[in-house]
Amino acid sequence: MKYNEIYGMEVPSKMVFWYYFFHLHPNIWVHNFYVVFTHLLPAIIFDTVARLTGREPVLWKAYKKIHKFSGVISYFSTQQWSFRNDNVIKLWDKLSEIDRKLFYFNLSDLIWRDYYYYHIRGLRVFVVKDPLDTIEEGKKRYRLLRWAHYTVVSLVYLFQAWLAYRILYFFFSLIMSF
User: Which residues does UniProt call coiled coil (predicted)?
Assistant: First the structure.
């Protein structure tokens, strides 16, 4: 995840919709809270604005697909997995020195930084269809989105603090009235 963040921020797409923000939450209630406030509510708000301005709403439909996919893979993504590679080791042992050089497949020697460096650029060019010559536009857009993201996050935290204050005030008022 860290390399995705590092190299993704080096070459942000001008088509990115929001600032990269990723957290793993071990508690399902915390996860669901963040899903509602960082995915579903923004999708509803942006799609409502899109409808009011005569544009096609797309976020709700996209987030429904994302959440369906998340539900499908949740069992696999929330478990700890151990894989045995006995057959690969046996195959490696059976190869001659020449074949080992021709068909080298030792993942422990893979330089993951280099892999992700090219992986992110390949995603940008071939999946998103955003050529590398628009990197400066992407960086400008990404800076704006970072400001917007942290503004929204600050407002959410302020709202949470206000809500906690109001709830505590209500209960203390109730207790003091007895």
Answer: none
Phi and psi of 11, rounded to 5°?
Answer: -130, 60
CA dist 22 to 30, 104, 108, Å? 14, 34, 27
Name the 3-class secondary structure at 17: coil
Token digits of residue 80:
């700890």
Farthest-apart Cα atoms in the chain, separation: 87
Q: Are 37 and 156 in contact (CB under 8 A)?
A: yes
Place of tokens 């949740």: 74
Residue 46 CB partners (closer than 8 Å, separation 6+): 57, 59
pTM across the whole model:
0.66
Query: Residue range 35-63: average pLDDT?
Result: 90
